[in-house]
Amino acid sequence: MVTQQKKINAAKLAITKITSGMNIGLGTGSTANELIKLLGDNPVLKDKCRFACTSTQTELLAKNNSIHIEEIDNFNYLDLTIDGADEIDHNGNMIKGGGGALLREKMIASISKNYIIIVDETKYVDKLGKFPLPVEIVKFGPKSTITLLKNIFSEYDLYPEIKIRMNDNGSHFNTDGGNLVVDCYCAELHSLNEIKTKIESVPGVITSGLFINMASSMILGEKEKASEVLFK
Predict the structure, then answer these.
(1) What is the mean pLDDT of residues 117-143?
(2) Which candidate in 105, 121, 200, 222 is catalytic?
(3) Is the pLDDT of residue 43 over 70?
């Protein structure tokens, strides 16, 4: 219950960043869900802003809260995207994709003038990597892609266990785009820019869950309040 209140506190501060007439990107995850619920209770904002979503899961929740969602191609830009993270460090670098929406999250972020990350304090870390790094890959030849990823990590003395993400029923997890996700259990990451570039250059890799130098700020939800940390 305490963790839930932290997420609610973060969402309450985040909604103050939205003003009437904005183009807004809505992120994926439990903290972003709290923002969507607040928007559903705010008729001025939900009726006077335009919204795009990072996942079908987010879109469904938004529609259940009477928020009209548009396709990303209807926008030249977004004024603001508010999204969560699985981990975020003190420089604003992140691991995202625990919910499997990493590609669409990155696409939405790329057309956003401001990109605010809302998290509870458990996600704010000194070093990335305790949360497994998701990598979205095509379905063709996943074992070959995993071998290439292991070779990259070994260049940096990292030897993660890499697993194809599975559903509870034993089937492969599929992203909204119909791709696979592999989770790389690294324990701690370094040389983030280099590793990201090399991972994303592998044939078969669509994108990684490393979001580097993208966040404008972070809203940190705590037990009694929330506070904002600026990155750029």
Answers:
(1) 97
(2) 105
(3) yes
